[in-house]
Structure formats: structure tokens, C-alpha cells
């Protein structure tokens, strides 16, 4: 006899959890669809040739690989074994589990380029797998919900990402959030202000730690890496520019001019009307804000232009986003950005796109931490019919069928049991209504209905039960 | 540059396919929930100790196994390599992909026995993976939708399975179906009639082929396996008994009596009123029929008592079910049965239950073969706003926000493009309504709405557009 268990980092979701998770999925799906995104689903299994090399070395390590079926070891030699896992891997596994939704999406677009209509807007809500060390808020199997548009560089897409982020969080009741926005162009300009060249990644890695090690820590790291002291001073003046979204834009323009940063020119979409037009990143951030104003967006107190936002992924080229729920100890619940060449590695270069992702498991944990879930029953059943014996049980079947036909999920307690046990069942499952059909009730053509929450009972003619409960 | 592909036996589902599949899931989910089944989700990854040995030798072969993460080959020795895959497997893989929904369910019930309220009714709609040879209607990644009740032996559960099968198929418009029902007790009794002992499996394997090799083939096989000629004659008299559900029950009782089959006694739930009471299988099949009559079931022409139905799985002990869609070349789309000891191998013996499963991919293929899908758009978008330049595009944003707020999924074409291109986009995606917002319309405070299907156009004041489209 074995003691069953599940792999670490994975979870079972019982009825109440599934119902709560469905609520999150529904809010996200409705928002995505309201903005015209269409659903896509890709296989759990992808060829390792598609996955490998897309997530960096660390990502390749964290991919779950699937053993070839049949005699998987037939091509392995003693020499392979001496080299070890690295030599064995390509001989024993050619498939892996989906690691994110972005690479499969890029693969899908490249494979179906001939039949898709661009701009192509898709959303995808599926699990992904990473062989990460499990910890709070980090699982080995977890869900992502992505929405991407490819085939347009319109900044309306960026503005709509902010609208969708806010709509989902408001819809979930997570009102106290901060959407951080930045632009890779701004970071590039700051890098220019530093006079650096070829050491972009050193700088971004250091900036990314600002939250954790503070200004002193980042300064120390940059000095150690050979940046000049005055340069680092300039960096922090630019990075920590204060004020509203618009004030920061203005002050960064001034800062760039002072620091002698070369303009990288206006974009041909009206952004040249802006004061910041000569710096593409700032110009686009200004345009995104204008489009939000025109769209009636009201929550600018929750939208922060944060020049220190870097985001790890290398493929971003334009606006980048990250969302945190305030007052909950939890990483970001959403993030994304614009990329110019996501499908390039699949033979379809130059397709610009922008996308973002919600982490459903983190949203769930935030809702739980903030006690924002409403009470969720362990069953969809609204009504339990109790009975006294086989005869009264059988006599209840027409009523049961009528309740279901009226759209009221219902059960007849399946066994002949004490009434107390049947009520205990309803109570444990959170079934709100119980109908008692005893021999007396049946003889009189009546049914007793008990509302479990209040304990209220009412007796009704059998023929009126469905109508009464439909109105309940 | 790589040419991307997906593993054989797997599929991408584009927007229209996802929408059609969601329709199937919704019909099944609504039915399950209407009968009081609550959702459960289990991890994709299960420990191989949970999966192995549950599906027979062939099943073990078809399990997808996942390589341990990190240095997976570290414990593999040269000696292992000489023996081959069998010796390597336990050293390199300890997890596998879900093969069905029944074993994870049994594992879940055993793990959570202390907190679950019995009878426990759960449904589960998740993908499963099998390293089978892909062919028509058989994929390596496919969805199952299961509903099971454990902790009761009430035959109401069996009757409700028939009701749910019929409700789902009717709900999908697959009206021409046959639900076959049999009982392992009937097969046991027939076996007794043959005087056989210890060769049950020989018999069931042969019977299972009746569809394919016919009466002559089965006879030949049984004679070869040493069954007496007269015995096989009796077998076929019993197996091929003609008539309605009730007539077959009556004729089998008579046949059993003639053949001297020992009664296996009535069950204590009212079945003893039946003529067939002394044979448990026949008695239960009679009770299931009575419960269906009492529940108002009307489709008895689609319910066939088929004594030749055997079902492969060894764990069934009571009623068994199988559903075929008539006039479509396709295996069964649903099946199930009662088991008495599903959780036994996980340390929880004696929990009786009954369950069944829909194969979503086969239902999809049947609906497609019978042309029963309604036209499905490539997008949820109902309304596309077209425009002439950046200014008219921006002026459209308040209307766009209003349409979405009114629950009408809408898009503004994101780029400044020729009107023709924007209409082509709407047409390719199946967007039913297009709003034209040109400089003239905007100056006059008007919007032109085109209904794509009919080509009809109407011009409305901008302020009336949302109300008009809500009524559309």
C-alpha cells in the first residue's frame, strides 16, 4: 500500500479553489475579449528545438524535459554517460513542457503567417511549468494569462494594456495597485547620458537591484564596475527624478539636454507635437498618456512613470510595464512590454508587437491575503432534496428534474439515511436550500423548504416549489 | 533559422476552434453542475509511483515520463546502460504526465479522506497525455471531462449518468446517439451459465471483439480456447437476446433459469420487487430503468441494454456504459461504470463509486463531421471603429470606451491605413459591425454604421451609437 502524494511545487484545486480561480479567469477573459483579443491554445508539449535558447541559460535549466517514448536509451553510449546529463539530454528527450506563453505564441504566428490577419490580437490562458525551487508565490506548475498584439506599432496598444490592467484589477476588487511604466528608450538615453558603451547590461543589472540594495548599494556596484563617480551622480539625478508622470517627462528632457544626450528623433505618429518629441522613449510615454486621457482613464494616481523599471527580458525594445498590489508582500502580478523581433528566431523577422501577462496564482494569493474572496461553496448545488425512505426518494424524482430544468443545480440525497445526516451533508457543502420530502409532506402534496443560512422554514404546495425557488 | 513545428499528435487551437471547444465544455460543465458535481483540478505532473501499474503494461508504456531536473544522469551506471531503458527509467524520471482523470481523482480522494464530505461528487475537465500512435480521432494530448460520485452505492447515480449523457448530447445537437448499458453481474452470470471458472478474461476478450469479428469469429476463438460447443451456443443465445430493454431483462432471467445459473441474491434497495431480483446485475439494470422513468426520461429508444458490452477496464464491478454517435465513423464519445475499490491501491479500500467520461476531441470531430457547428468568428470583437487619420482615430477613443463599457467587445483599428484595408480586416476576422468615423462624420457629430452581413449602412448621431448597437 502506497501513501499517495503530489510532486512538490504542484497543487490540487478543490471545488472552492476552482470556483475562485474561475472567477479570476472570467474577469481576465471578459476584459481581454472586450478589447478584441481572441483566444489561442497551444500544446503543453513543445519540441525542445522551439524552447531551448529562448529563456537564457537559467531558463534552459528550468525547462521540464519529457523522455522520448519507447526505448529512450537506445542511442546512449558509454561515452555519453561519461560526459553526463548534457550529452545524454539530446539523445533521450526531444520534447519539453511549455515554459511561458510568449514563445509558443511566436512559434504559432511564424507557423501560420500565411493565414493570419494582422494585426493579430490573441489571448492565452494556460499553465506553464518551471523546475524552479518552490517557495511562497512560486510554483512549478502555474497559470499565465497573456494578451499580445503583433503586426502594428501603434501606441494605442500600449495605452490599452494600461486600461486592461486597471480593468482587471478593479474587477477583482484589488483597487490599491501601482502600474509602473517605463521605456527601453529612456533607459538607453540614460545610458547615453552616462557616456557608456557596450556595458548596458551591467547598468541594467545594477538598476534592477535598486529596490533591494538601495542607492548606496547600486552606487557601490557601479563604481566597482568602473563607472565614474560623476557619472553615477548624473544617473541618480535622472533615475530619481520626482513629480507626476508629466513632470518626470519634462524634467528628464531637461536632464537629457543638460547631460548632452543626443535626440533619437520623433516617431511619425503625432508624437512630434510633444515637447519631449526628440527623445523617442519620452515621446512615446507622453503619447501613451495622451491616449489614456482621451480614453477616459481616471486612475493616473495608480500609474507611475518609473525610470528605474528595467524588466529582465532581453527582447523588449519599447514600453515596459509592471504591476504590484500595494500592501501585500508579493512580486509583480502582471508585466509586459513591446518587442520588435519576437518571431525572428522562427524565421519571421520584423514583426513588432506588444503584450502583457497576468500571473493568476499571484492574483489568487493577493486576493486571499486581502480577504477579498467572497464565501465560496464546496458545490454548485443550490438545493438538496432530503427524503425518508426509498419510496419518498423515488417520489422526489419529478421535482428534482423540474428544478434542474429550471436552471437550479440540485441533488437528491442518494442514500436512505437519517435526516440529520442529510442536513449535515448540505451544511458541510454549503448548499443554501434544503427541501424535506417526508411521507407526510408527500401525502399532503406539500414540501418543506429550509433556508440554511437563516434557519427559516416554509411549507409550500409541491407544484409551487420550482417557482418559489426560481425567485429565491 | 529554424522551421518551427509542434510534436506529432498535438495541436494548436486558433480562435474559432477555441470558441467551438468552449461551447462543448460549457454544455458539459452546465450539465455536471446542474446535477450537483463540483469542479476539481489536479496537477499535470503526477509522481510515477501514483501512475505506474494502474493502466496495465500497455498503459505504463504509453505514459509520458518527465526527466528529473538538474543533473538527471548522476545515478546512472554503465551497468544500467547495458540493461537499457528499463533500468535507466527509475533513475532519471520520477514524474509523469496525467494519463487519465480517474487515477488522480482516486489519489485525491485517498489523500483528502479526512476533510471530504461523502458522498463526494466531482467533475474534472483537463487534458491527458498518452504516447499512443496518432491517428484519426486519437491524439497524444486530448481532453477528458469526467464526473464521478464516490461514497454511495445508490443506483440513482447510474440513472443520473444516463440523464447527463443524454442532456449533453441533446445540448450539443448530437441527437442521434445510442447509450449502451450493461452490468458486470450480467456478464458474470453468463459466465456461470457457461460453467467456466478462472477464464473470465478469455471470455471477455472474445466478447469484446463481437463487433469486429462477428459471431463466427468469436465462436471459433472460444472453441480454440477449449470452450465446449454447446456452451458457446448457450452463450450466444444469452448474448444476442432480442427485444426492448425490459424484454431482454425478462428473457435473460428465463435464460439463466434454464441454464441453471445460481441467483446472486437481491440488493436491499427495493430491487427485490423486480422479477429479476435474484440476479443482481439484472435487478440493478431494472432499477436504473425505473429510476429513469420516474425522472421523466423520454429517450428510451436511445438507451440500449447490450449484454455484449464488456468495456476494457478491469476495475468496473457494476453497471457499465458506452455512448456512440450514430452515422459517424468514430469510437465511443463517452463511457464509464461503477467500481467498488478504486481508491484501494492508495490505502482507502471499500469506497464504492461510479463515474463516466466525455472525450471532448471526439465530440468535436463528430460535431464537425455532422456540420453541427454554427459559424464561428475569428474574434470576439462585435464592432470595429475605422478612421482616416491620427486625429479621427484619437477622437474615436471616447466612443470605443463607451462601447466596451456597454459590454460590446470593440476595437479601434490601431494604424492609420486606407479604409479598404480596415474593412478587409473586419471581413477576415468576421467582425459583424463597422463604424466609420471620418473627418466629415466627426465634424457633423455623426457616425456611419455598416452591418457587414447585409451591407446595410445607417448614419446616426454619435451620442446614439451605443444605444443602437446594444439593441442590435
TrEMBL record, chains A, B:
It is found in: Cytoplasm. It is an enzyme of class 6 (ligase). Pfam families: HGTP_anticodon, tRNA-synt_His. Residues 1-398 form the Aminoacyl-transfer RNA synthetases class-II family profile domain. One of its GO terms (cellular component) is cytoplasm. Keywords: Aminoacyl-tRNA synthetase, ATP-binding, Cytoplasm, Ligase, Nucleotide-binding, Protein biosynthesis. It catalyses: tRNA(His) + L-histidine + ATP = L-histidyl-tRNA(His) + AMP + diphosphate + H(+). Its EC number is 6.1.1.21. This is Histidine--tRNA ligase.
